[in-house]
Write a structure and sequence with these properties.
Strand content of chain A: under 5%
Number of strands of chain A: 0
Distance between the termini of chain A: 38 Å
Radius of gyration of chain B: 18 Å
Strand content of chain B: 25-35%
Oligomer: heterodimer
Largest interface: A-B, 38 and 33 residues
Shape of chain B: globular
Largest sheet of chain A: none
Order of helices and strands of chain B: EEEHEEHEHHHEHEHEEHH
CATH class of chain B: Alpha Beta
Number of domains of chain B: 1
Structural class of chain B: alpha/beta
CATH superfamily of chain B: P-loop containing nucleotide triphosphate hydrolases
Radius of gyration of chain A: 26 Å
CATH topology of chain B: Rossmann fold
């Protein structure tokens, strides 16, 4: 026991001390901490003021929690059916599992470290304090409840995944049973939603919101429990808070018992997933892009034409096209495209039936651009920068950077055409506005690719995902302010007939800014170092 | 052919290479020896143009980051870096196209056959073992017929047949007039064919010998390595 306490404390201490050697990370942590403290203080102060503001429908937030819960439920159940989940790391397996320490104590250690990680991972909720306050009028209690429920969901789902793995490993009929329950539950929820829609004669969104807000939904594992807990906190209903807590606790105890009761040996059960997680982490450290890893088996025909085209730097373009063809039959249209096309289509339809104002259409455009920022964080150029070839190939740096970025520049164009064609049809937007919306989306994509080049040139590498989320988007917004301002001014000044042109200043600025970045960073490959990782 | 002059490479306060200089001539195999962390991989990466450094590196008289220098250079990294979504054959095609090579198909076939990859041309990079990936990495590095070749721990992960084939390829390339630099820990594997050696410790060249010099003095490569590396440790302990 003492050894595990020592291990926990020493690891924590060393992690904190290692920040001395990473001043940038230290500054980032301090910045984020200061921001969170500032937000909490502001919330506490503004809590005392009486607000007369109109807030958004809080059922939207309940829906987000339910959606996240359902996603976790699906993802962790699926991983439970294949590799399971792990509360441990490879050093734990190598050093702890073989040590003369009780496996139950080691399990406790695993649970504590996972809970710690889950709490740390959920801290970003506090970053949303401002949004939650202004949108829903929530105070510290509600935001803290969100933080707790998110951490609890992560911890419980890890445990559930191990439980499912132990229950179904090597037994196909049990696996099928778990799968059947999962799919039956999903289909049941969908059918009930359709039924509610038909009975109450309401729109799809209204029907989904009603289902999520209903009492029976609160008893669905993870998604329902978490939603019920949060609704309980919002409505100050002690019973609604206690029931999901009890359900989480009872189910958690049951799974832990499954792991430890009798001769149960969980070491073997967590081994596969620990190795799997370790391989993924190693791949991430070495710079291999695991986010794009595809699970289906790719068959290469014997008469496959190969790259088939390109010479010199342009070979990168054709290689990327081949890689994209292997990942998706429709080359540029991948799962992200499908998700965003469907999402924007639904939003467009809702805007039409609700007869929304023009502003709402621009908000939809801003939202898809915002999502695109995160999708572009794993661009093709980044993949090349972590392999030595782009540095070794005897071609001009500018040509190589441009050729390696071309597919990343083309993808938003293809996405934009597809998604705004659907959006225009379903929302009833003026087709000319649709064209200029698509141009704005594609131009934003170009800036995001440009930012990848700029990061590499200025920082000698890509900032990590946390930095990109917290600081990168802030810097990007500052850079874009003049163009957004110009577009807002155009919207005010232009006559109604020419309103479709109001995104044009923004688009032009984005394209010019991207061109400027590419020209300034033309010697990127000669001036940066190959590190083999992000 | 390869000239390294006063190269210093720092990572923050750590000096990975400290004023390193050496030359490798046409038809010469030079081996870079040294304990872990001596700076061998860093100097090789600097020569390959992958790192920024102070000093000068010339490949066939051209500054190492120039296009002409890159055309003459072959680099086989310590860890194979393959594309998951390209097959073995497509890796060769990629290199051939990117280097604008002519009549490369026959050479590609020969290289793949030598490393027993002929029947794996349609296998994706992601589905290969570490050893096979290393073999493809070697084939990719040698396909453009480089005049200066850098090998960073090339034998690690290879099976005995591939080691034998690689050794004979190195000797062939030497006889074709290539300047070859090999960083390795496996002294036995290079014993038969090396011409010169540089032993590195703490980022510096601690000793330099040619085969002729050693044969004249009766020194043995392994004994020299331990004398230099462990002697250095002893000296450092005495200094303390």
């Amino acid at each position: 026991m003492k050894a595990l306490v020592y291990l926990l404390i020493t690891q924590l201490k060393n992690r904190i001390l290692s920040l001395k050697k990473k001043p940038a990370m230290l500054v980032l942590y301090c910045f984020v901490l200061a921001l969170i403290i500032f937000s909490i203080v502001m919330i506490c102060i503004s809590d005392k003021e009486k607000s007369t503001m109109q807030f958004a429908d809080e059922r939207i937030l309940f829906l987000i929690i339910a959606g996240l819960g359902l996603f976790f439920l699906y993802a962790f159940t699926t991983s439970g059916l294949s590799t399971g989940a792990s509360l441990f790391t490879m050093p734990d397996i190598g050093l702890l599992f073989v040590s003369p320490i009780s496996s139950k104590i080691i399990l406790m250690y695993g649970l504590i470290t996972t809970l710690g990680k889950a709490l740390l991972g959920s801290i970003f909720i506090f970053y949303q304090i401002g949004t939650l306050k202004t949108s829903f009028g929530y105070g510290f209690t509600e935001i803290f409840a969100l933080f707790i429920i998110l951490a609890l969901m992560i911890l419980f789902c890890q445990l559930m995944s191990i439980g499912i793995y132990i229950f179904s490993n090597g037994n196909s009929s049990r696996k099928n049973l778990v799968k059947s329950i999962l799919y039956a539950a999903i289909i049941a929820i969908l059918l009930i939603t359709l039924l509610v829609q038909k009975q109450n004669q309401v729109g799809t969104l209204e029907a989904i919101l009603s289902v999520v807000n209903s009492k029976w939904f609160g008893y669905i594992p993870v998604a329902g429990w978490s939603t019920m807990f949060f609704i309980g906190v919002v409505n100050k209903s002690v019973i609604s808070i206690l029931i999901p807590c009890a359900l989480y606790l009872v189910m958690g105890i049951l799974i832990v018992s499954l792991l430890t009761v009798g001769k149960a040996d969980y070491y073997e059960d967590v081994l596969v997933s620990t190795e799997f997680t370790y391989q993924n982490r190693l791949a991430a450290k070495e710079g291999r892009n695991i986010s794009r890893k595809i699970n289906r088996k790719i068959k290469v025909k014997k008469d496959n034409p190969g790259i088939g085209n390109g010479k010199g730097a342009m070979t990168f373009l054709y290689k990327h096209l081949l890689e994209m063809r292997r990942r998706s039959r429709f080359i540029f249209i991948d799962s992200y495209s499908m998700f965003i096309i469907v999402g924007l289509g639904i939003a467009g339809y809702q805007l039409r039936i609700k007869d929304a104002s023009d502003k709402a259409y621009y908000i939809a455009l801003a939202l898809v651009i915002y999502f695109q920022y995160f999708a572009t964080m794993m661009g093709k150029l980044k993949d090349e920068l972590i392999k030595p070839y782009i540095y070794l190939i005897p071609e001009n740096s500018m040509k190589k950077v441009f050729a390696a970025s071309l597919t990343s520049l083309l993808k938003p164009c293809v996405d934009a055409v597809c998604m705004f064609a659907v959006f225009t049809v379903l929302s009833g937007l003026n087709p000319l506005s649709g064209v200029f919306f698509a141009l704005a989306y594609a131009a934003s994509g170009a800036v995001f690719v440009g930012m990848t080049v700029l990061y590499q040139r200025l920082l000698g590498g890509q900032p990590n995902i946390v930095v990109q989320i917290f600081i990168g988007i802030g810097i990007l917004f500052l850079v874009m302010v003049p163009s957004i301002g110009a577009s807002v001014a155009a919207a005010v000044l232009l006559p109604k007939k020419l309103e479709f042109l109001c995104t044009l200043p923004y688009s032009l600025f984005c394209l010019l800014f991207t061109l400027f970045i590419f020209i300034v960073c033309r010697n990127l490959i000669d001036k940066t170092e190959y590190t083999g990782k992000f | 052919m390869l000239s390294v002059r006063g190269v210093t490479k720092k990572y923050g306060k750590l000096i990975a290479n400290d004023n390193v200089s050496f030359e490798i001539n046409q038809g010469e195999i030079s081996i870079l020896l040294g304990p872990n962390g001596a700076g061998k991989s860093t100097i090789i990466k600097s020569i390959a143009g992958l790192l920024k450094f102070n000093g000068n590196i010339y490949i066939n008289g051209n500054e190492n980051k120039s296009i002409s220098a890159k055309r003459d250079l072959g680099y086989i990294p310590e860890l194979p870096a393959l594309y998951d979504m390209l097959t073995v054959g497509e890796h060769m095609e990629f290199i051939a196209r990117a280097y604008s090579l002519e009549n490369w198909k026959e050479r590609s076939e020969q290289l793949l056959e030598r490393f027993e990859l002929g029947d794996k041309k349609n296998k994706l990079g992601s589905g290969l073992s570490k050893g096979m990936q290393q073999k493809i990495s070697i084939c990719c590095g040698l396909l453009p017929n480089p005049k200066v070749i850098l090998f960073d721990e090339p034998m690690v992960g290879l099976d005995p047949h591939a080691i034998k084939e690689l050794k004979s390829l190195i000797v062939e390339k030497k006889s074709e007039g290539a300047a070859i630099l090999i960083s390795t820990h496996m002294l036995d594997s290079v014993e038969e064919f090396w011409n010169s050696t540089n032993i590195m410790i703490e980022g510096k060249i601690a000793a330099r010998r040619t085969r002729k010099e050693m044969e004249g003095s009766g020194e043995d490569l392994e004994a020299l390595f331990f004398k230099i590396t462990e002697g250095d440790r002893i000296n450092m302990e005495v200094d303390k």
